[in-house]
Amino acid sequence: MICPHCGYDNVSGSKFCYRCGKPLPAETDQSGQPAGAEQPYQPEGPQTMYQPPQGQSSVPQPPANKISPLVPVLISVAGLLLVLVVVLSALLVTGHKKSAGAGHSFSTIDQLLEKSDKENGSKAGLLTDEDSDSVMVSQPFIDGSDSAADKGPEDDSDKKDEQEMEKAPESVQLSCGAQILKDADSADLSQYSVGDLNGIEQCPDLSSLIIKQGSLTDLGPLSKLTHLRNLVLNNVPVSDLDALTGLSSLTTLDIHDTQLSADAVKRFTDTRPDVQISGYTAFSYTVVIKDTSWDQAEAECEAAGGHLASIRSQDELNLIIDGISRAQDQSGVVLHYVWLGASSSSGSWQWVDGTPWTQLDGWYPGEPSGHDVDGTVEDKLCLWNIDDYGWTLNDQRNDLTGFNQVAGHMAYVLEKEELTGIKPQ
Fold first, then answer.
1. d(Cα 208, Cα 123) in Å, to the nearest integer?
2. Which of 74, 224, 270, 407 is deepest in the core (most CB within 10 A)?
C-alpha cells in the first residue's frame, strides 16, 4: 500500500506507514468500497493460521531491499563531524607552535578563544569593544622570521651560540708552530725553535716575550709591538738590535748566549740608554798595525786579555773588514796582510778561543792550499788584499816578516770579550 504522506510502498493491509508512522487509508476494491466490507476475503482450500519462519517476528517487516533514506544523512553527518575534529586538532597544533615561537602571522585557535574571553577582558594583548561583538588586536602580528619579539627559545639559543663564537679568542700561529692569542699580554716560546717572527705583529698587546732557541736573525716584526716591556733573546744568532730602538715601552733586555758584537750593542745602548741590558757577551775588535808573526800576534793578544779574532758569521767577518778599512783611513797605512785567530796545524781548522769552526765564504780562488809555492806549510789564517779581489781569506806560513814586499803592510785583529757598558776600543 502506497503511503499518501511519504510515498513509501507498505505491505498490503498495513494500518500505519513503516517510514513516517502516519495512518494509512483503508484499502478499497473496484467498487470503491473498503476491501472486505461486503466481500470478505475467503481463501481457497483448507486454511491454517500463518506461522512465520523460525527466528522471524510475526510482526510484518518492510522488504529487505528497502534502505531507509536516513542512513545516507547519518553517514554525511558523521563524516562532517570527523572532518571538524581533524580541523580543530590541526588548529590546536598550529596555535601551540605559534605560542612556542613559530612566528606565524595569524593564530586561529587564539581567535576562537578570544570570543569566550572578550567579555571579562582576560585575554592578554586584546581590547574588547563593549558596543560590538568585534575583537580588536592591540598590536598586529608580525612574521616571526623578521621579528625579535616572536623569536622563541630556539632563536635565543642560536643567538647565544653566535655571540659565544664571536667572543671566541683568535690566535696567531707562527712558523715555528707556536700559537699566540691575539689579545695575549705575554708569550713564552722557549720550547720552540724560532726561525722568524712573521705574524707576531698581530699580537699588539704583548708586553713580555721569551725566545730561547732557534735560528732567529730578524727582529723586524718586533718593532710593531708598541707595548713590549720585557724581552728575552737567548741562544739566537741575532746580529743587531736596531729593530728594538723604536720600542718606547721596552725597559729590560736579556740576551744570554747571544753573541752580538760590541759595536751592535753599543749602537743600541747609545740610542736607548734607558733599557737595562743583561746576560750578553759582546766583543770588541782592535786593529793593531804591526809587522809580526802569527804566533807573536796571538801572544800579544792573550797578554791584552783577548785572542786573535774569531769569526762566527759572515756578518762578523764583514764587520772586521770594515774596521780594517777604517784603520787604514785613520793611519794612512796601506795594509795587505792581517792575522786572524785560526790555525790548521792540528790537521783541521780551529779557532784559538775554542769557538766552533764556521765555514765562511770569501776565500781567495784556490785557497786554502795548505802550502806555499816553495813548499812551505801554510796553516795560519789571514785576510789579504793584493789585487782586484779586495779583502779575501787565505792561509799563510807562520812568519812573513822576512819578505820586503810585506814589511810595513801587516796588522792583526785583537778580539776581547766585553761586558755591558764597556765600549769597544
1. 64
2. 224
